[in-house]
Automatic annotation (TrEMBL):
Protein name (Swiss-Prot/TrEMBL): Kelch repeat and BTB (POZ) domain containing 11
Top-level taxon of the source organism: Eukaryota
The UniProt record lists the keyword Cytoplasm: no
Pfam families, per database record: BTB, Kelch_1
Keywords for the protein's UniProt record, in alphabetical order: Kelch repeat, Repeat
Residues covered by the BTB domain: 6-66
Phylogenetic placement of the source organism: Eukaryota, Metazoa, Chordata, Craniata, Vertebrata
PROSITE patterns: BTB (PS50097)
Length: 410
């Protein structure tokens, strides 16, 4: 392919790079979505970084050092080349010695975009354990053993966590639980507390509280920040910087929108929230502009059971006791909804979702369904997995990487 004449000119930093559309599209959803263009202006990436990434796409050789690793990983995320992120991290890990480990670690931690190891489309699927928290009656977290097809207790949440109406998400392999309400009715007290769980040390810690107490909020991680969205009687939104241990206000939800969101997820570096009562809406938050934008909503007017993202698509799951499960997908690049899949047989109760590799796990107290997403197809696996038999309340699945032999905590 590289022997054919280039059919794409990339303009970056006032300079030009010739390339082949097909070669870049194979590794990058960013270039794949722009195949119709012959000239492409790229912002947010330097010429030097772009050259490094283009060389990697053509040669599979990653040329990074402590001087450019942050820029290369950030650029790879902007251009949606997850395997380049993986290659850069692997290359840096091979360069670490006892003499320079602190210096390299400090350089990487300066930029949140350098954190994490996203699933690579160039390698095998990550084998991250699936965990589930039982919200409300039981402060227990269970983890799923795929080999044995069973759920096992992992850890208990601190009693100070108000699991009813709280927000929960993961970031950098930490679990965060924020807000919630303690008690019922007029005696219920809304919380501003935020807790963080480290699965490597099996320890919980309390971090900086929210600037506003929130219940029924949505908690989402994006680009190294946590976002606490809305809540009962609240249209405000705030974000948490773990490096500064600080919450700051960002643009509130638009006037006339919903305070209590149905679902929230991130896709291609943007935050999406759905909600509403008589009229359901999909909103997108642009962090660079600090503003909310209206997105097209699909024809379904039902409240979805969950909404998750995989690559550049958002998958919305609707559950109906009589008609089964209907899945819709939203292309965040062309901004269009499509019917995706359905399952009519079996008992269908509402569930929550978590993504590992190309599989979306749909978890409730009766079963765990697997929804597999392939390049040209998406389907439910016929045989359901088990569910946590001891769990009570509402289940909320999430993904953490656990140590092979967890350390005992005293």
């Amino acid at each position: 392919m590289s022997r054919l004449p280039p059919d794409l000119v990339i303009e970056v930093g006032g300079q030009k790079i010739d390339a082949h559309k097909a070669v870049l599209a194979e590794k990058s959803d960013y270039f794949k979505a722009r195949l119709s263009r012959d000239t492409l202006k790229v912002k947010g990436v330097s010429y030097k970084t772009m050259s490094t990434l283009i060389d990697y796409v053509y040669t599979s050789q990653m040329n990074v050092c402590k001087g450019n690793v942050v820029e290369v990983i950030t650029g790879a995320k902007i251009l949606q080349i997850p395997c380049a992120v993986e290659a850069a991290m692997d290359s840096m890990s091979k360069q670490i010695t006892a003499e320079n480990c602190y210096e390299i670690l400090t350089i990487i931690l300066k930029d949140p975009a350098a954190y994490g190891r996203p699933p690579s489309r160039c390698g095998s699927r990550p084998q991250s354990p699936l965990s589930v928290g039982s919200l409300e009656e039981n402060h227990m977290i269970h983890c799923f053993n795929e080999t044995a097809n069973d759920w096992r207790p992992l850890t208990a949440m601190p009693e100070d966590i108000n699991t009813k109406g709280c927000g929960i998400c993961t970031m950098y392999n930490y679990l965060f639980v924020a807000g919630g309400i303690k008690g019922y009715g007029d005696k219920g007290k809304v919380s501003d507390k935020v807790f963080c769980y480290n699965p490597i040390t099996n320890r919980w810690a309390e971090v900086r509280p929210l600037t506003q107490a929130r219940a029924q909020l949505k908690l989402v991680s994006m680009d190294g920040y946590l976002y606490a969205i809305g809540g009962e009687c609240l249209f405000t939104v705030e974000k948490y910087d773990p490096r500064m241990d600080r919450w700051t206000a960002v643009a509130p939800l638009p006037k006339g929108a919903f305070a209590v969101a149905h679902e929230a997820t991130t896709c291609s570096g943007e935050l999406y929230v759905s909600g509403g009562s008589l009229f359901y809406r999909l909103l997108k938050y642009d962090a660079k502009r600090d503003e909310w934008q209206e997105c097209p909503f699909n024809n379904s007017r039902k409240k979805s059971t969950d909404m998750v993202a995989f690559k550049s698509f958002i998958y919305r799951f609707d559950v109906n006791r009589e008609h089964g499960i209907t899945v819709f997908k939203y292309n965040s690049i062309v901004k269009m909804w499509h019917d995706c899949a359905s399952q009519r047989l079996g008992s269908h109760l509402p569930f929550r979702c978590a993504v590992i590799g190309n599989c979306i796990y749909c978890v409730n107290k009766s079963q765990t369904l697997q929804f597999v997403v392939e390049e040209e197809n998406a389907f439910f696996v016929e045989e359901a997995l088990s569910s946590p038999v001891e769990a009570k309340g509402v289940l909320f699945p999430f993904v953490l990487t656990l140590p092979e032999k967890p350390e005992k905590c005293t």
